[in-house]
Every structure is written in structure tokens, then in C-alpha cells.
């Protein structure tokens, strides 16, 4: 058991809170603020107790560069609206800028630091960087379930220099997603899509023996289509994972898992909502065309397979749902998940945005802030960000 926020004294203390404000953005505007709202119980509690709250997050993958499109400023603004009070913003998460911003905090004040991933040491779990973050505060809270599968400096390394406990969101995620790990209901289906193919394809092997049905869509499906020897045109394909995909297709038959791949796609001649588009069969993607959504036959087959399920976990949209012409597959699967007589978990920054957009979120048992994190948890892995927290 891990210590939680209620077991520590925070009054008048500087509290470092790792949050996951990696929200979907379109031209600098937040399109889904679920991940920000999800941290409100922790922030409100800390405010009531008179803590000096220092929030830190990553946004996107700027890879150590100060790319302006990855600034956390819009999140400070949104959080301030949600809290109904000002949220200070520091242009850097370490160094003089951060220190000065922290010094001005009074009990109950909230500060958001700029993107942790503007420093490459964050993802490298650099010790000096972790120490620099730790030096800002007297105690730490992890409320960033979505990034707890990453052994990064603000998630894992920092705990060597600053004691960290679990926030309310982390506790809640452990309860629900952990519940699915410990007491899975059968038949159990996992649906995996999205764009983070190389990360997420690695979890499939361990998931196969745990589920009766595994549905693959979105960008993930293309690598499997390539593994079947079909052409993929200019679709997103992870070439160095084609062999792994082939072995997973084989493993599925050995574990008696019903592995469902799309049998048709909506293909486009450019990555744009205005592109020409048409439906083709899974073996019919021509040169110069890319798969941007699953087709109607796949939608139907996936929905049928989900009907008898008792538990469904979904991460990763079935297509580029941000563009209306390629949203039908994701919406169809959202509907099938919502209508199933099952315990359902939908997780991930974009997946949750998709389910919110479809208006079906209130029909899902648990909306999780974790995408990759939920999958790795489900796979049976210990998440480094959780392991590193102080024990009771
Ligand atoms: N066929 C496709 N080709 C390219 N991109 C795709 C395709 N299908 C889906 N996507 C993109 O995948 C992205 C979401 O993938 P991602 O793996 O980030 O899911 P997520 O739910 O946000 O999970 P996480 O929280 O782990 O990031 C969306 O932006 C969507 O447009
Ligand atoms: O969106 C997510 O899954 C988390 O914020 C982690 O982001 P990452 O995959 O870039 O580490
Ligand atoms: Mg995402």
C-alpha cells in the first residue's frame, strides 16, 4: 500500500504535484480538458489545507526543445477558469525562474511550471534534473497516472530526493484499472488503436493470454496489415515492428484469442479532412493512399464481437477522429462499447477526447486518464511511478 495525500502534513508547505496535463490541442486551444478536471480533487484539497501548490507536467513530445506549440500556458488558463482563481505560470520548470515563482507563493496559491519535456533530462531520468525539481518543494504528490508508466525524472527519479505520495486521481485509477487487472470479468476484450504504435505493440503479447477478443484499429492496424503481406501505401506503418506483428498474429491463434483486424479501410490521398477519400478492402490500399479510418464492414464486425463481452478496455482511436471524414470508425466503436452490457474502461488523452466528443462518456464505467499507462498496468507490469511512491 502506498501513502496518500491525506497521510501527510501539507499546511504552509511547498508541495510538488506531478500532473498529466498532456491534453489534446488544436491550434493552441484545448479540445478536451478531462485530464485537467481529473486533478481538481487533489488541487482543491491542497488549497483547502493551505499548501503552496507547484504543478508540473509534460505536454506532447518536444524532445528537449522549447517548441512554443508545446507550452503549458493554455492549461494554466484553463485550470484558473476551473478553480475560479488565478494560477501563476513559470516560464521554466527549474532554475532561477522556477525558484523565484515558488518563492512568491502563499498558502493556497497555485503555480504551474512550464513543460518538463523542454529539458531532455526529464525523459532521460537525469539525476541532476530530478534533484533540481525536488529542491523546489518539501513534499511531493504524484497525480499523473497517465505518465506513471514512464521512469522519467519528475515521475520516478525525483522520489530519491523528495518523498512522494499518491494523489486522489492516482488512487482512483489504481482502484478502477487495478480492479480490472485483479478481477477481470470474462469474456474480456481489449481494443487498441491510435498512433503510438511502437510503444503499445509491445504490450499486446502479454495481453493476448488475458483476453478473449483483441481488436486492433487506428494507426496500429497498418503494421499488422503489412505483416499479412498486404500493401499499405503511405499509411503510418512501423516497419521495424512488422515482424513482431506477424508473431503476435501467430501467438493469438496459439492462445485462442480472437484477434480482429480491420477488413476494410477509409483511405485518403492526403492527411487532410479535405483529401479525396474512399473505402477499400484491407488488401486494396494503393500507392499514394493512406488508411485514416476503419471501414464500414470492420465497424460492423467489431461491434458484433463486442456485444457478448463482460469487460472491455479501450485505448486508441480507430482513425483520425479529429477530422470528421475519418471519425466514423471511432464513433461506431464508442457506441458499441457504450451499449455493451459490460464493465468498460476507456483510457488515453485522445481516446477520452473521442468518447467525450461522441457524447457517450456517461455510459462508460470508468474514464481513465491513462492510455499507455492503463495498457501497461493491464498487461501486468508494475508502473515505475507507482512503485516509487512512499509505502504506508
Ligand atoms: N490510421 C491512422 N493514421 C494516423 N494516425 C491515426 C490513425 N488512427 C488514429 N490516429 C491518431 O492517433 C492519435 C491517438 O493515438 P494515441 O496512441 O496517442 O491515443 P491516446 O488515446 O491519446 O493514448 P495515450 O494517452 O497513450 O496517448 C489521434 O491523434 C489519431 O488521429
Ligand atoms: O498521453 C499519454 O499517454 C501520457 O501523457 C504519456 O505521454 P507519452 O506517451 O508521450 O509518454
Ligand atoms: Mg495520445
Structure overview:
By secondary structure, the protein is of the alpha/beta class. The protein folds into 2 domains: 5-172, 3-Layer(aba) Sandwich (Rossmann fold); 184-378, Rossmann fold (3-Layer(aba) Sandwich). It is built from 15 helices and 17 strands. It has helices at residues 34-37, 40-48, 73-83, 95-103, 120-124, 127-134, 168-182, 197-207, 218-227, 242-254, 296-306, 328-339, 349-357, 372-378, 384-387; strands at 14-18, 25-26, 29-30, 52-56, 88-90, 110-113, 139-142, 164-166, 188-192, 213-216, 258-260, 264-268, 277-281, 290-294, 311-315, 343-347, 366-368. A 6-stranded parallel sheet has the order 5-6-4-1-7-8, with helices on both faces. The chain has a 6-stranded parallel sheet with strand order 11-10-9-15-16-17, sandwiched between helices. A 3-stranded antiparallel sheet has the order 13-12-14. Helix 9 (218-227) packs across helix 10 and helix 11 packs parallel to helix 12 (328-339). Bound molecules: adenosine-5'-triphosphate (ATP), 3-phosphoglyceric acid and magnesium ion (MG). Adenosine-5'-triphosphate binds at residues 146, 193-196, 218-219, 236, 291-292, 315-317, 319-320, 322, 348-351, 371-372.
